[in-house]
Amino acid sequence: LRHFLTTEGLPRQLLLQILDTAESFAGVIDKSVKKVPLLRGRTVINLFFEASTRTRITFELAAKRLSADVLNVNVATTSVKGESLLDMLRNLEAMQADMFVVRHAESGAADYVARHVGPGVSVLNAGDGRHAHPTQAMLDAFTIRRHKGDFEPLIIAIVGDVMHSRVARSQIHALSALGTGEIRVIAPRTLLPRDIESLGVRVFHDMRLGLQEADVVMMLRLQRERMQGALLPSEPEYFRIYGLTEDKLAAAKPDAIVMHPGPINRGVEIDSRVAEGPRSVILEQVTNGIAVRMAVMSMTLGVYQEMPREPA
Ligand code: CP
């Protein structure tokens, strides 16, 4: 595994290896040990061309926990002199970068960077346009496995703006490969991509029907920055029909967990009482992002060795 650009087409074994590796890192960093020396002397460069709180900071924390040197390039102030992306990359590579973590508003940007870096450099996709957000999907799968164990008996419902969501696409690919019993998407027709049926999911437009017997409810943000003329109800109307409230959540299993990749829009796709409620694992997802990103970084740079497990 040299780059990590998408979950599409990845074999189940590899996804399980990422989850297991993340589990062993979580076991170490949850306790007194805060750092391991696996990436000592390596340089990780965060190239975020689009805003991020959770992904950028947990990538930085993950690299630091692995003892790498981390640089956060402020793209807004770095590329002001008309330099092309490619020239900028060549210069950063000349500074002996080992890894680029790339977020960009254009689908395919991380693949483009991966095609143009030298053989010793790994590229991780931290979210590109509507295309993919593979580490988000893996931290979501990690969180689900911690709460529910096996994927096979699960009904997982993904709710909201699937059309513009790179998270949903990566989740569907990863959860399918991991053998999830049933993946549902719940959304208005205007927020579903044309190829949705081909992704092997069950489509619902009625939220209460779609949530029935669900084990996991994954909410999505309305991605307004990627909408161009989409036919949308007003926010209060959207919340009334597709916002997750305690009342609608009652249709899911009593032990269903509630997830959201963040940032959450309270009162638009989720009610505060649900976001803060006992079934919400939203902040756990953020914490789990550190171990999962440690796993992906160490596996792509080929330095992963099984962490010594502490005696029970
Ligand atoms: N989930 C996610 O990608 O959040 P950020 O945009 O804050 O990184």
TrEMBL record:
- UniProt domain Aspartate/ornithine carbamoyltransferase Asp/Orn-binding: residue ranges: 156-299
- UniProt-listed GO biological process terms: 'de novo' pyrimidine nucleobase biosynthetic process; 'de novo' UMP biosynthetic process; amino acid metabolic process
The protein's GO terms of the molecular function aspect are:
amino acid binding; aspartate carbamoyltransferase activity
* Catalytic activity field: carbamoyl phosphate + L-aspartate = N-carbamoyl-L-aspartate + phosphate + H(+)
> What does the record give as EC number?
2.1.3.2
InterPro entries given in the database record: Asp/Orn_carbamoyltranf_P-bd, Asp/Orn_carbamoylTrfase, Asp/Orn_carbamoylTrfase_sf, Asp_carbamoyltransf, Asp_carbamoyltransf_Asp/Orn-bd
| Positions of carbamoyl phosphate binding | R54, T55, R103, H133, Q136, G262, P263
Q: Where does L-aspartate bind?
A: K81, R166, R221
Q: Name one GO cellular component term.
A: cytosol
Question: SUPFAM superfamilies given for it?
Answer: Aspartate/ornithine carbamoyltransferase
Q: Name one Pfam family in it.
A: OTCace
Does the record carry Lyase as a key word?
no
Protein's pathway: Pyrimidine metabolism; UMP biosynthesis via de novo pathway; (S)-dihydroorotate from bicarbonate: step 2/3
Please report the stretch or stretches of sequence annotated as the Aspartate/ornithine carbamoyltransferase carbamoyl-P binding domain. Answer: 2-145
Q: Keywords in UniProt for this one? A: Pyrimidine biosynthesis, Transferase
The entry describes its oligomerization and partners as: Heterododecamer (2C3:3R2) of six catalytic PyrB chains organized as two trimers (C3), and six regulatory PyrI chains organized as three dimers (R2).
* Described function: Catalyzes the condensation of carbamoyl phosphate and aspartate to form carbamoyl aspartate and inorganic phosphate, the committed step in the de novo pyrimidine nucleotide biosynthesis pathway.
* Family (UniProt): Belongs to the aspartate/ornithine carbamoyltransferase superfamily. ATCase family.
The protein in question is named Aspartate carbamoyltransferase
The uppermost taxa in this organism's lineage are: Bacteria, Pseudomonadati, Pseudomonadota, Gammaproteobacteria, Chromatiales
